[in-house]
Structure formats: C-alpha cells, structure tokens
Specification:
Radius of gyration: 24 Å
Shape: elongated
Order of helices and strands: HHHHHHHH
Largest sheet: none
Distance between the termini: 60 Å
Number of domains: 2
C-alpha cells in the first residue's frame, strides 16, 4: 500500500537552511537528500525541494545569478535553433555559471515569443508564396509599401548589436 501524498506547504527558503544543504553537499555530494533532511533537521522540506534548491541556486558552479545579457540571449536563441540541444548542455558548454533551469525559464518567459516572431517574419519574407497559397481570397500580389512595412517591422525586432 502506498503512502498518501501530503500537501506540502510552500515557504521561502531561509539562510540557515541553505547553509545546511551547502555544508552537507560540500562534505559529501553523494549523500542522499533524505539523510540531509533528517540529519540537518530540515522540517517541512522534501527531497524534491532540497534537490531543486541545490541544483538551481546553491551549487558552487552557479556563479552567475544576475540578469541575462544580450549576448547570453543571443547564445540561447542560436542554440535553440539547432536540432540537438538541451538546457543542461547549454548551461555546461555555452553558458557556464548559469543554471539549466534559469536558461529554460529565460527562453520560455522572454525569448521564445521573440524568436518565433522573427522566424515567422523571416519565413514570410523569404517564402511569401507559401503562406499566400492557402489564402483563397487573396490575389497573391504584394504591394511595395507592404514589403517595406514588413521589412521595417522585422528590423525593429532585431536587437541592436
């Protein structure tokens, strides 16, 4: 018989809890979270929340916790356009010092929509006949001022170098 899931109260982490996790993990990286919770007397914390706290905020490898730079944004966008990518690989090889979860959140909250908009505009500019073919009501002609407006909108989405 399985144990019923207890609803866990979410509360902010406090410095002494962070210090307990850091001390235990610094001494023995292979120590199980259940042991850290028990020995460190971390009441109200479970394995998942402790692991998340360590992996995304407290690990010594995470040195960059500030705002993302435009250069980092460019790296994320470039890496996301490749067929083989992972947040962990991006953090390790392309953005050392950043947590994989922070990179994922940056992509999902700030960059994905901008990247999709730029990609859509690029596709429409390079292959206008593709998106016009499905439009039965259109005469499929493009006026010069329409192209200029689209180009101006496209240019406004590209961040300055």
């Amino acid at each position: 018989m399985t144990k019923p899931q207890q609803k866990r109260q979410k509360r902010a982490w406090v410095e002494y809890e962070d210090n307990i996790i850091i001390n235990f993990k610094t001494k023995d990286r292979n120590l199980r979270w259940t042991e850290i919770i028990k020995q460190g007397n971390l009441k109200g914390r479970d394995e998942k929340s402790c692991s998340h706290r360590w992996n995304n905020y407290l690990r010594p490898e995470i040195t960059n916790k500030g705002e993302f730079t435009p250069q980092e944004d460019d790296i994320i966008i470039q890496q996301m356009s490749l067929p083989q990518n992972s947040w962990k690989s991006m953090a390790k090889h392309h953005l050392p010092g950043r947590a994989a979860n922070a990179i994922k959140n940056r992509w999902n909250r700030h960059l994905k929509k901008r990247h999709a908009t730029i990609s859509d505009l690029r596709r429409d500019l390079l292959y206008p006949e593709e998106h016009l073919m499905h439009d039965e009501a259109s005469d499929h002609s493009v006026r010069g001022d329409d192209v200029e407006a689209l180009m101006a909108e496209f240019a406004s989405l590209i961040p300055p170098s």
